[in-house]
Amino acid sequence: MPPLGGTATAYATAIGATYPVLADPTDGVAKGSPWNGATLPGHCAMAPDMTILKCWTGHGEDTQGYDAIKAHAGL
Amino acid sequence: MRSSSLFLVGVLLVACATENGGDQQGSSGASDGGAGGTLDDGSGNADGDCLTDGEELALGTDPNAVDSDMDGVSDCAEIDCVSDPLDTAEVCYACGWKHNDPGNLVSTGATEGSTIANVSLIDQCNEPVNLWDFAGEYHILYLTAAW
Predict the structure, then answer these.
(1) Do A24 and B127 touch (CB under 8 A)?
(2) Contact: A22, B135; criterion CB under 8 Å
(3) Given pLDDT bands bounded at 50, 70 and 90, which one contains residue B73?
(4) Can you tell me the distance from the alpha carbon of A67 to that of B130, in angstroms, rounded to the nearest whole number?
């Protein structure tokens, strides 16, 4: 059963999120990014023009995403 | 067993490095306006909303209508929430997200370096959200699954 708004609502409440928590009922992000859903969690760093800068999986691997953003931003 | 159709996407704003972009209608220079002035000098306010007639003309909104696109949300409210006051199909997101899709993006693929597709998602306010409305800032998508 695909996730709907109620799934996003429940998850956002559970983690206390104030940022967007979005259900993806069509697997659109998995189909439209290098992340294929085989390993959780997945991450993708996105530029302001919605370019996919870097995708990676697993916990504790966030540095590469921040590095990709900093490089893109010229920092 | 995880179903591949249960993905959740968390859009995490990376606050350390942002760029302005998108519609950016939130800082329109709107003022309280008020009666007085004339349409000729732009200082009047025929519809009595937060925008002077001159500001309405600059924005393209109707100086004689509080809700130019007649979508049920006033021009002023749409400007405040970064929604297009001239687009009937676009109203404020209940969760407060900005409509930052600049309108000129084209998806170029699904690999690093490509522009991602404008995926339709559903937010925690149970409302459809288009991914490109988060343009204009750096984000990290956190992708997980629900069982």
Answers:
(1) no
(2) no
(3) confident
(4) 26
